[in-house]
């Protein structure tokens, strides 16, 4: 059925949602992705896990291009969690090396693609060379105003919220802030995602159906899509299937 184009006078939330669902981005302003399944992808082909992470990086490059093509303004990827340190030291080392390789080899391209890079997560505990590259990625792309690519690295939502609470508590302890004055906006502004809209859609690849300590505050009203596709295989068909699924949902934000 054709969706009527609303004029300003008769624009309703339903009509606006119907219109948005026909855009290439289906009304998704912020797409968050848990890029899961690299290890299984490699194991299935008799390859070492690191081969899966390398193929996963290629899928990240593809995601950036797909997001730009579909005019999705914000994309967040979960690249390394605060819990990933429990993996064998060799794999942790490989993931660190891959991040360094990514920044060194792709930063010029990202700059040219008008991508602005933001890093989420705790940088203090990372090796100085990793930290320096993350800082460089943010600094070099700071003036870009196309896609914002948030890379969650050494990120965990509980760690993020703990750091935010410490900062707010310090202001209270210093007498600069009354406890009653703490607002949801203030908490949001103290998180790593300050200034970034909450995700509309969260995709987790590889069939796992968990949030795994990702964006717990920000996902209060996010729609979740669990894709069976392993991350290295995540392509246009997989993304568009998730976007179509999103477009078919009626978001009510607690209303009726
Ligand atoms: C995701 O793939 C990569 C990271 C989060 C580092 P996994 O390494 O978790 O792959 P599986 O889950 O073992 O298949
Ligand atoms: Mg996994």
Structural key phrases:
six-stranded parallel β-sheet, Undecaprenyl pyrophosphate synthetase, 13% strand, alpha/beta, 256 residues, binds 3-methylbut-3-enyl trihydrogen diphosphate, single chain, 6 strands, binds magnesium ion
How many structural domains?
1
How many H/I helical runs?
A: 8
Estimate what percentage of residues fall within beta strands.
5-15%
First-residue to last-residue Cα separation: 24 Å
Tell me the overall shape: globular
Task: Assign a percent range to the helix content.
Answer: 40-55%
Largest beta sheet: what is the strand line-up? Answer: 3-4-2-1-5-6
Unreliable sequence segments = none
Rg on CA atoms, Å: 19 Å
**CATH H-tier superfamily:** Decaprenyl diphosphate synthase-like
Total strands: 6
Major β-sheet annotation: 6 strands, parallel
Secondary structure elements and pairings:
Blueprint lengths: L12 H8 L9 E5 L3 H7 L4 H21 L4 E8 L7 H24 L3 E5 L7 H13 L7 E8 L1 H17 L10 H7 L10 E4 L18 E4 L9 H12 L9
Parallel strand pairs: 1-2, 1-5, 2-4, 3-4, 5-6
């Amino acid at each position: 059925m054709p969706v009527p184009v609303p004029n300003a006078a008769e624009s309703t939330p339903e009509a606006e949602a119907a219109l948005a669902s026909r855009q290439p981005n289906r009304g998704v302003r912020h797409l968050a992705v848990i890029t899961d399944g690299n290890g299984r992808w490699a194991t299935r082909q008799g390859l070492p896990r690191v081969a899966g992470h390398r193929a996963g990086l290629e899928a990240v490059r593809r995601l950036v291009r797909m997001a730009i093509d579909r005019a999705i303004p914000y994309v967040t990827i979960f690249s390394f969690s605060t819990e990933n340190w429990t993996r064998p030291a060799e794999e942790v080392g490989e993931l660190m090396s891959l991040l360094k390789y990514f920044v060194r080899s792709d930063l010029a391209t990202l700059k040219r693609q008008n991508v602005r890079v933001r890093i989420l997560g705790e940088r203090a505990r990372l090796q100085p060379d990793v930290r320096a590259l993350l800082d460089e990625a943010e600094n070099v792309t700071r003036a870009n105003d196309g896609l914002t690519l948030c890379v969650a690295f050494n990120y965990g939502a509980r760690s993020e919220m703990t750091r935010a609470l410490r900062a707010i508590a310090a202001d209270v302890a210093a007498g600069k802030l009354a406890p009653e004055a703490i607002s949801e906006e203030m908490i949001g502004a103290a998180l790593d995602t300050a200034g970034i809209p909450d995700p509309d859609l969260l995709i987790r690849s590889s069939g796992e159906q968990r949030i795994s300590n990702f964006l717990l505050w920000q996902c209060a009203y996010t729609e979740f899509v669990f894709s069976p596709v392993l991350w290295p295989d995540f392509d246009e068909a997989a993304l568009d299937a998730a976007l179509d699924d999103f477009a078919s949902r009626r978001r009510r934000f607690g209303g009726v």
